[in-house]
Design brief:
alpha/beta; 10-stranded mixed β-sheet
Length: 304
Amino acid sequence: MEPTALIYSSHDRGDYLHRKWIVERALENPINKTVLYLPFSSGEKDQEYSWGTFRWYFDKFKSEGLVAKTCFWKPNMSRDEAAEVLQLVRDSEVVILGGGSTFAGFDRYDGLGTSFDDDYTHFRAILYERQAAGKLTVGFSAGAMQLADFCPSDDFHKPYSLIHNVTVTLHHEWSREGELAHIGRSYPNHFAFGLPNDAGIASAFGYLPSGNKWQILRFIIDSSWDRAEDAFHMKTRMGMGIDHFYLDGRKWTFYEGDRMIQIFSPDYAYRGAWILPANQATFFDYWTQQPTIFTSVEHIFAVH
């Protein structure tokens, strides 16, 4: 049940989130320890800067074998250039879609396939191949919107949906609760989460013998970044969790180690969901917020 997708919002490279969830995942592979950072959502002249905000952190792990790579987008990529980027996406143990403009990123990622074989779905297909192979794909900032299942700020592009039935807002804070609640009311078929700095959601999924799909969301709160001059940006260090609003306005806040287990029927007519708070043995029904009879994730799977 290793996560195959991770989406997050951050101000800088907090050690807990970046080391435990990204770097260590690459280092676990005995052969392929590659992290590929794609700054395609950044402005053409800002890609080097975007890469630099990650490179300094990855350089700390060179002695452990980590290989950090990047590719920059440029207009009118040749077929060979697009093929090289797509192959790196396919082969890397961890791939990170960086921050910037969600719209521009979609155009450029999909444009790789258009340049390669006139198929704008080629990049998407490789992300699904990675997921099927158990590799981790990460979305940072704009990348988080791109990997989720719905993007309220972009009704033209179809997100890559490595995490199902989830949408997020970024750099969430208490003053933005109304915005998150509005999204929860407006898009009842998607779970809307507000990601503050520094917080994320990791997702694993698979299929049950019944044909139903399962998904486990793990909530990540990183309070390791402690530079005094950045204190205003570190909402998790102020005690903020990952807020979620229901269609009817109810609220649930997720904290480090909490999990949400979801079951979907093949036609998505059935959506069961349960919340397991960290360090507890009680599974709460998502819809009623009441304790259930379930004693483990396997128990939920067996019944469905």
